Amino acid sequence: MNNKYAIILGNLGNTRDRFCQGYKNNPSSEEMLKMALEKMPHIQGIELVGSWDIRPDNVGDMKKRLDDAGVACASIIPDTFGNPVYGKGSITSIDAGVRQQALDYLRQMSEVALAMNCDIINLWLGQDGYDYLLATDYNQERDWLTECTRAVATEFPTLRFALEYKPKEPRNFSYHARMADTILAAKETGCSNVGVTIDTGHSFYAGENVSEAVVLAKRAGDLLYHMHFNDNHGSWDDDMIVSSVHFTTYVELMFWLRKTGYQGWISMDQYPYREDAIDAISESILWVKKYEQIVDTYYDEIEALIRENDAVKTSRFLRKLFA
Hints:
This protein is α/β, with parallel strands linked by helices. Helix content is 44%, strand content 14%. The radius of gyration is 19 Å and the shape is globular.
């Protein structure tokens, strides 16, 4: 296995939640980038959040910093979720002016991606969904979702638009909620450059088997464009250190990523509110590399166990890994 590892830059500094306005000081993007490049192992890419880390006015500076360090811009994540203008939807807002503003912003971030030699726009449309019943025209808003995604994907055919799904938060219901409906959303655009991002934690608390989600994306036409790794207890998007909770899940996930020929980034996405960010995110990278090593070593044995469909034999194999 020869995976490419990346981090989301803002994870090194943003420690707000709805109770505390910051558990630690929030460094500048430039300071976080310096920390990541100097102190974190195995980093080959950096994901930049639009408006937080990257804007038209600092593209040249950020590109030079990454180029000088020999790391790639793994993705651009447009901020359609933190701006209060989009509080009731970005490209699905019932306000045509807001929809237009959101679409123009996505175009701007796409231009930024081209300038950064980055081919992935990671679309986490966190505000595009709904909260209350009898208050939403689901059909109309999904039409807007499709039309706007199609528009930007058509205008920027050399970029890949990866739809990141999550069942809820900040809205009670998200339009991109699980793998199956996100595949549908991608397919409805009719664009060959629209696919999916799996965030492991989002998949866990969506009630999915994340390995099956990988297979679904493969069967839909190699639609898995990007991966975010973290962990949680299954009831919320806790964004914890990889392997804090799950073990077998990650062994299986790394097997199926190899089995399906995934070639994209393995990117860490977690919020170490109270932990040292460098240490916590580095732990995640080292855990994923450990799972990569396990799969490389035991690939044929794992494949045989899957064919046998014998849960006891599989249990014995997993216990052997701790010997």
